[in-house]
Recover the amino acids of this structure.
């Protein structure tokens, strides 16, 4: 095992590190949550990544996204994340997909190839389809609920979707998944009531591509976010993935 992972091996053991090296994890959404998930997975020794996102880094990402700097503005997020992974672990294999995952894209992905799926996207339609495809393939998936307009990172919990409360996104997901016969789903969610942000609107041409859904009359209210809330959600997601792969939850 590479010396760079020796401190992790002290806790998990050699056999677990080999399992992580052989694992292939697909992360859908490389934003405030997904970027930190990938960062922790790369530093934990995951051997193969699929990164799915069609967005480019923009100036407003700098306050919360680990890949966002003045130098990376305008670059595709999956490309920046790939370079970062390989700087951490040159032995990793990284496959990038410049697209937003939607139901019509499902044929482009073979979920049975993955060891684990991470859902860090924002749209309900995409989240539902990811759950359906992963569970149909028998692949574990973890899904992040709403992290916008939150200020208390200690309020995040790992729970089954049907045991969640407070989170509006989780409420919608419960209804939609129940209607589709989904029995369970591991999620990271916050019980903190959403903070009402100051009113801010972006015109359509000013929005990042992944913010376009939900616009009305060319404008959309922008949720507030911080450096210390989505990052915590992403790190919790990564921890769950690692523990599941090496069997610490059994």
């Amino acid at each position: 095992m590479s010396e760079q992972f020796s401190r992790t091996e002290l806790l998990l053991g050699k056999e677990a590190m080999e399992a992580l090296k052989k694992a292939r994890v697909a992360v859908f959404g490389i934003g405030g949550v997904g970027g930190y998930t990938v960062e922790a997975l790369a530093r934990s020794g995951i051997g193969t990544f699929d990164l799915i996102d069609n967005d480019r880094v923009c100036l407003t990402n700098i306050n919360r996204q680990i890949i966002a700097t003045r130098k990376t503005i305008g670059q595709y997020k999956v490309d920046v994340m790939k370079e970062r992974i390989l700087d951490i672990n040159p032995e990793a294999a990284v496959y990038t997909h410049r697209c937003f995952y939607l139901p019509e894209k499902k044929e482009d992905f073979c979920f049975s190839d993955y060891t684990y799926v991470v859902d860090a996207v924002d749209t309900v339609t995409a989240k539902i389809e990811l759950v359906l495809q992963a569970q149909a393939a028998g692949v574990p998936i973890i899904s992040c609920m709403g992290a916008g307009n939150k200020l208390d990172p200690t309020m995040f919990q790992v729970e089954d979707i049907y045991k969640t409360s407070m989170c509006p996104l989780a409420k919608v997901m419960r209804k939609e998944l129940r209607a589709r016969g989904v029995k369970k789903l591991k999620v990271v969610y916050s019980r903190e009531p959403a903070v009402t942000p100051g009113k801010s609107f972006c015109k359509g041409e000013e929005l990042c591509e992944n913010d376009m859904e939900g616009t009305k009359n060319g404008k959309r209210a922008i949720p507030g976010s911080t450096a210390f809330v989505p990052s915590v959600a992403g790190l919790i997601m990564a921890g769950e993935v690692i523990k599941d792969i090496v069997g610490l939850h059994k």
The beta strands are 24-28, 48-52, 93-97, 116-119, 141-144, 156-160, 186-190, 201-203, 219-221. DSSP finds seven helices and nine strands in the chain. The first strand starts at residue 24 and ends at 28. Residues 203-207, 209-218 have pLDDT under 50 and may be disordered.
